[in-house]
Amino acid sequence: MQQQISVITLGVEDLARSRRFYERGFEWTSIFENEEIIFFQMNGFVLGLWLKTSLEADAGTRPATGGGAFTMAHNVPERSDVQRVMGRLSRAGGTITRAPDQPPQGGFRGYVADPDGHSWEIAWNPAWPIDENGHVTFGL
Amino acid sequence: MQQQISVITLGVEDLARSRRFYERGFEWTSIFENEEIIFFQMNGFVLGLWLKTSLEADAGTRPATGGGAFTMAHNVPERSDVQRVMGRLSRAGGTITRAPDQPPQGGFRGYVADPDGHSWEIAWNPAWPIDENGHVTFGL
Asked: What SS3 class is residue B107?
């Protein structure tokens, strides 16, 4: 399995406040923005700032990390890989916090917490290409 | 400034338990391991599993994310960049949680929390090369 993290999603309270921090503080430029999420194309993966309420609703639970809501995503090449990888992670000591299903934006995904409660989304997202080096590119 | 995250470090309670999850669950191979940390070379950055107590000691505080200790790192090309970037992040709404100093392994780093308490380490680490695309490679 590729050693790649596709997306890091930080749950935020206030998009404007976060945009100021990331765009003025880090001087980064977003690649996409709507009323609930901002994406940045990073070095081989995508960083998302998503309203915490939406992230929590998507994860089907308050993320186990508590105060600072946060999840990593590992994207897989095929829809059928989602269930298979989640099963393997579960057998390896993870806890399935959301069984896989289709989110509103399409694709297929579920959530697994690692032994310390760090949240991983396992996702099939055909719109976001992954190259042979595991570098993930934002797509629509 | 490069749109890059150099390292994602997850605080863990039990390295053996975490190794099982990441090596058997994700089928990833580590690139370095000692008695307190395991590194994986990822797609353009490095993933670290570090004993939570060590991560908290390094960050000089309990990470603001609570239960699941976690920090991201943004590495900069020059030692003098650390203070400059931290100042800019502070002016952009961040909170400096550890003023920059030299960690035991060398280099120079400080910590800033974003407006939601997500922890960022701003680090100068000359041993870990960053290419022109912002892809970061583990080094010793």
From this structure: coil
